Amino acid sequence: MPKQKAPKKQLKSYKLNHINRTIQEGDAVLMRSSEPGKPSYVARIEAIETGARGSHARVRVRWYYRPEESIGGRRQFHGAKEVFLSDHYDLQSADTIQGKCKVHSFSSYTKLDSVRNDDFFCRFEYNSATGAFNPDRVAVFCKCEMPYNPDDLMVQCEDCSEWFHPSCIGTTIEAAKKLDHFYCQECSPEQQDLDNSNSTSKKSDDKVKTKRSLEVTKTRNKHTKRSG
Ligand SMILES: [Zn+2]
Ligand SMILES: [Zn+2]
């Protein structure tokens, strides 16, 4: 039987002495960027390995991309702490791990009482070669037909349950926070004067809402297709 080269050891978990934390498969971590001054990379640990004698710990990671790093770039609806789970894998020295972080689902992120530095959220998977997102459509809200950015305050109409940006209904964030009740233009005819400056044509017989969505992958083709 031929002798094998020094085998790599796969580890379930590994203690990082330089940050005094133990990492394991599935953990999200911050990794030192190769470009000085750039924010840390966010990655998910897929596997941990060392040389046969336990030296040179390396992690197999799956990168999270920030919106800036995607082909389409950062868009208005992207949150400050949004990352995309990419199909881009790498083998990195465990020394480059700067700390652990938490990548929440979109819905659990929106329920956080406070967002800490190490909190992120992910609602899309991202194909780094084509720039395609999965899911490739996302629900839109408000008159501006934008996907929800969890950094932006929105107010909900008590009648139709649609969400609106304060600026899109002619008010301010401060004023919107003080509203006890809110009815949108379509549900509250007497409020229509508020919005004279907005020239967007509106169909009042369009109250039966179709599920509206935005195609997120094709950045040049923003119009929404309605099914049915
Ligand atoms: Zn809006
Ligand atoms: Zn309404």
From TrEMBL:
Main localization of the protein described in the UniProt heading: nucleus
Which top-level group of life is the source organism from?
A: Eukaryota
Keywords recorded for this protein, A-Z: Flowering, Metal-binding, Nucleus, Transcription, Transcription regulation, Zinc, Zinc-finger
Record domain BAH: where: 21-137
Q: What does the record give under GO molecular function?
A: chromatin binding; histone H3K4me3 reader activity; transcription cis-regulatory region binding; zinc ion binding
Q: Does the keyword Repeat apply?
A: no
Q: Where in the cell is it found?
A: Nucleus
Q: List this protein's GO terms for biological process.
A: flower development; negative regulation of gene expression, epigenetic; regulation of photoperiodism, flowering; vegetative to reproductive phase transition of meristem
Q: Where is the composition biased (Basic residues)?
A: 219-228
What Gene Ontology cellular-component terms does the record carry?
A: nucleus
Matching entries from Pfam families are given as:
BAH, PHD
* UniProt biased composition (Basic and acidic residues): 202-218
For the region Disordered, what residue ranges are annotated?
Answer: 189-228
Report the InterPro entries cross-referenced here.
BAH_dom, BAH_sf, Zinc_finger_PHD-type_CS, Znf_FYVE_PHD, Znf_PHD, Znf_PHD-finger, Znf_RING/FYVE/PHD
Q: What range(s) does the PHD-type domain occupy?
A: 139-190
Q: Which family does it belong to?
A: Belongs to the SHL1/EBS protein family.
Q: What is this protein called?
A: PHD-type domain-containing protein
- What is the organism field in this record? Eutrema salsugineum
